[in-house]
Specification:
Helices cover about 30% and strands about 35% of the residues. The protein has six helices and nine strands; from the N terminus they run H-H-E-E-E-E-H-E-E-H-H-H-E-E-E. Strands 1, 2, 3, 4, 5, 6, 7, 8 and 9 form a nine-stranded antiparallel sheet that branches. Strand 1 and strand 2 form a beta hairpin. Helix 5 crosses helix 6. The longest helix has 14 residues. It is globular and about 60 Å long. This is Pyridoxine/pyridoxamine 5'-phosphate oxidase. Pfam families: PNP_phzG_C, PNPOx_N. Pathway: Cofactor metabolism; pyridoxal 5'-phosphate salvage; pyridoxal 5'-phosphate from pyridoxamine 5'-phosphate: step 1/1; Cofactor metabolism; pyridoxal 5'-phosphate salvage; pyridoxal 5'-phosphate from pyridoxine 5'-phosphate: step 1/1. Its EC number is 1.4.3.5.
Length: about 220
């Protein structure tokens, strides 16, 4: 297939969204209630990585970056994820705490977008989660200086084996450069696919009186 044929093929890829709609009368007053329901349904559908979310940050020049991380907890106080504090995303957030999250539940023809600001988790919160991780994942946190340039994969594998031997006995200590963030959200948008591209979109925005809900054009 030539490049022009390939582009023509991509341009005409489409399908109808027929799994159902989202109506104003069915929306709870609190967006976290709907988010929890949708996340539970994504898990029940046995979607791969239902807690995977795109995390978008912006550098000092205004350049946006995105990557996938896993949501590890959520409640009324915010949404939690963990990372290397020397990573690109952490450096961005140190300068600009504003963040966007996106949950792409395409199998269910749904998306959720979250806007907010981050705050660092306490050392105790980070330690509690770190100790709950598989031992190999704890070692992996020590191995990678996230976002730095390396010459080959063998560098990582060699360091992993070295640290696995070093931490053969006892608990693995929490790296000082590893931590987490709580996303204090103020906006959540829910997207449900609809027939004929008439998708349903509702946005929740927090104000002084609680949550304001508006329907958006698809």
């Amino acid at each position: 297939m030539s490049e022009s044929d390939n582009l023509h093929h991509i341009a005409h890829l489409r399908r109808e969204y027929t799994r159902g709609g989202l109506r104003r009368k069915d929306l709870p007053a609190d967006p976290l209630e709907l988010f929890g329901l949708w996340l539970s349904q994504a898990c029940e559908a046995q979607m791969p990585d239902p807690t995977a979310m795109t995390v978008a940050t912006v550098d000092q020049q205004g350049q946006p970056y995105q990557r996938i991380v896993l949501l590890k907890h959520y409640d009324d106080d915010g949404m939690l994820f963990y990372t290397n504090l020397g990573s690109r995303k952490a450096l961005h957030l140190a300068q600009n705490p504003r963040i966007s999250l996106h949950f792409p539940w395409h199998f269910l023809e749904r998306q959720v977008m979250v806007l907010g600001e981050v705050e660092k988790l306490t050392p105790l919160e980070v330690l509690k989660y770190f100790q709950s991780r598989p031992r190999e994942s704890q070692i992996g946190a020590w191995v990678s200086k996230q976002s730095s340039r390396i010459s080959a994969r063998g560098v990582l594998e060699g360091k992993f084996l070295e640290l696995k031997q070093k931490f053969q006995q006892g608990d693995i200590p929490l790296p000082s450069f590893w931590g987490g963030y709580r996303v204090k959200f103020h906006t959540m948008e829910f997207w449900q696919g609809g027939a004929h591209r008439l998708h349903d979109r509702f946005i929740y925005q927090r104000d002084a009186e609680g949550w304001k809900i508006d329907r958006l054009a698809p």
